[in-house]
Design goal:
CATH architecture of the largest domain: Roll
CATH class of the largest domain: Alpha Beta
Largest sheet: 7 strands, antiparallel
Strand content: 15-25%
CATH topology of the largest domain: Chitinase A, domain 3
Radius of gyration: 28 Å
Length: 235
């Protein structure tokens, strides 16, 4: 909403731009005023493409023209009517985004269930009562951490598509955290590992970020982590 209101406010700056029919030649860009007018119009057009994808160009240009004239009698809408229209449009956008999120959440949920069902049949993959799946790649000989312990780990997190969304290995530095400070799939999975082990954790969405997602993680995403448990309770 703020972006849209700001964009409408900027129209006063670019109102020096004149409309033209398709049969007219391009206006000249010789003077500084002409270049600034065109440049501001171009910038506003790019912003409006993102903020208002359903922009009706004819009505938009007429609004700029009437705003530049500065005559309230020419205006076809009051400020109150403009505000009401903006609020109604914002609500439509929100409803559309919610529908898209629900569709994506359903798609991700179905993909995750199918993946986990097939993955559970692979040799070496264990499934816990919670639905977490884990696969020990390298067995360590140290102690297993408890839920209240701190751990130092290296990890790589991927989506089912194989896209890496986070990796301490890529950053070149392991991370340390408390097991009661992370997603449930990590809390449970790392307690199944001995210090020095490396494992893959296949975490269903309900043990990860659920329908809300997180940053680059979509709603109901099943996640795959390659985790190396370096040390339990590091100093």
């Amino acid at each position: 909403m703020k972006k849209m209101l700001l964009a409408l406010a900027v129209t006063g700056i670019v109102a020096g731009c004149s409309t033209q029919t398709e049969s007219e030649k391009d206006p000249s860009l010789d003077t500084t005023d002409q270049k600034v007018s065109y440049g501001m119009g171009l910038v506003l057009g790019e912003r409006m493409k993102n903020d208002l994808p359903d922009l009706q160009m004819e009505q938009f240009l007429q609004g700029i023209e009437h705003g530049h004239e500065g005559d309230e009698e020419v205006s076809r809408m009051s400020r109150e009517e403009i505000q009401e229209a903006l609020m109604a449009y914002q609500q439509q956008l929100q409803e559309r985004q919610n529908e898209q999120q629900e569709e994506l959440a359903q798609k991700n949920s179905e993909a995750g269930e199918a993946f986990l069902a097939e993955n559970a049949e692979r040799e070496g993959v264990e499934t816990t009562d919670s639905g977490l799946q884990y696969e020990i790649l390298e067995e360590g000989d140290g102690d297993k951490p408890g839920e209240s312990d701190r751990v130092k780990v290296h990890y790589t997190g991927e989506l089912l598509s194989g896209e890496v969304f986070d990796s301490s290995r890529e950053r070149g530095e392991p991370v340390t955290f408390g097991l009661n400070q992370v997603i449930p799939g990590w809390t449970e999975g790392l307690q199944l590992m001995n210090e020095g082990s490396r494992a893959k954790l296949y975490i269903p969405s309900e043990l990860a970020y659920g329908p809300g997602g997180n940053h680059s993680i979509g709603p109901n995403e099943t996640l795959v982590f390659d985790v190396e448990l370096i040390e339990v309770n590091p100093e």
